[in-house]
Amino acid sequence: MSSASRRKVLLMGKSGSGKTSMRSVIFSNYTAKDTRRLGATIDVEQSAVRLLGSLVLNLWDCGGQDAFLDNYLVAQRDTIFTNVAVLIYVFDITSSEWEKDVHYFEDNLQALRENSADAGIWVLINKMDLVDKEDPKRLMYAERRAEILAMNERLSAGVDNAGPCRIFPTSIWDESLYKAWSSVIHYLIPNIKLITEHLTYFRDLTKAAEVAVFEGETFLVMAKSGSPLDAAEVELDEWESERGVGRLDRQRFEKVSEIIKSFRRTCQRTGEQFLGFEADFDGCVVVLEPLTRNTFMLVITTDPRLTASMVKYNISQSTIHFVEVGLTVSTFHRKCSICRDTVKKYMPHAVYDVEGDDDPNVVAWDDVPVESDVKPANGTGSHTPASQS
Ligand SMILES: Nc1nc2c(ncn2[C@@H]2O[C@H](COP(=O)(O)OP(=O)(O)OP(=O)(O)O)[C@@H](O)[C@H]2O)c(=O)[nH]1
Ligand SMILES: [Mg+2]
């Protein structure tokens, strides 16, 4: 495995803020209740999480008791802070020592910017479930968020290539946890632009309203068609606006992650295997089907002509190329104008090398056959979508 596909992720923050709980819910199938029996983490617990075979996250869960903190900043400074792709820093919103917590965060941020300037910083303000009732407008969260952003701006000024800083309110008791971690995974996938472009093409061709891909183990959403994952209503593309995507639940992906994971746990208890999901509502079909060995594709359609079996057929037809595109692949051999254009525009490190690329007789993946070429629905190798009218 190339080192480019291994990404180091630091998980830091004060003791009891919820670092190991998050890791266990997302990667080890714990329920939120199960985390009550976790003990404090001693020093650094490293684990490798493989996503889709080709991308490995090296998670460094750094115990947050005072006894370890100085050690990270002094004796282990180089070991901890070099080569970091993302720092996930967890705050406890209920902490009575906010000043001290922020001060310690500042020291970590400084060490990170010195040793891994381009690392992304994801700040998760956790245990929101404990304060939401007293502070429904989340004024305290907004205040703390502003303070952290200002601090990052100050410490990143003058740093070339400083990575982004994102802040999320989270709780292990609801889907907000999935939203934050999906955003990290999305950031870490090298071919994310390529995957997004293919999903958008697939959506348009098959007349779906929205298409998304989930990682098969964690059920985190990795990518979606059209506008960015956390786009506001004004950022939706024309296709999405026309098909009413703005009216869909803003938390739909995190909710799918949470529901499917808990349903799968039930399946495991009863010895069943979770294979997929489909629902046919009035004027809306939702299908969740395996796409590649470790991913699922979610397709939402609002076109009354489309049925679940048509959607499933289209998903199965796109599988081969989605496997080829992968998460980390950097040499492309199948003729496809989406790959060609995206590599040219956004991926200077990648190579698009297709024999006969300019030969019109070589069929590209995204060539849509004319009506007379359309093969019957049981044909293999054709990428004809099951809706072209
Ligand atoms: N209410 C609530 N409790 C949480 C949340 N996240 C974690 N907890 C609880 O907080 C306690 C401590 O969580 P841990 O995950 O062990 O904390 P940690 O950050 O790993 O602590 P160290 O390993 O000592 O650094 C556990 O009892 C969890 O159940 C949350 O979002 N809401
Ligand atoms: Mg811990």
TrEMBL record:
UniProt key word Nucleus: no
Keyword GTP-binding recorded: yes
Region (Disordered): 369-389
Bias (Polar residues): 379-389
Recorded superkingdom: Eukaryota
Family (UniProt): Belongs to the GTR/RAG GTP-binding protein family.
Name of the featured protein: GTP-binding protein
Gene name, Swiss-Prot/TrEMBL: Rraga
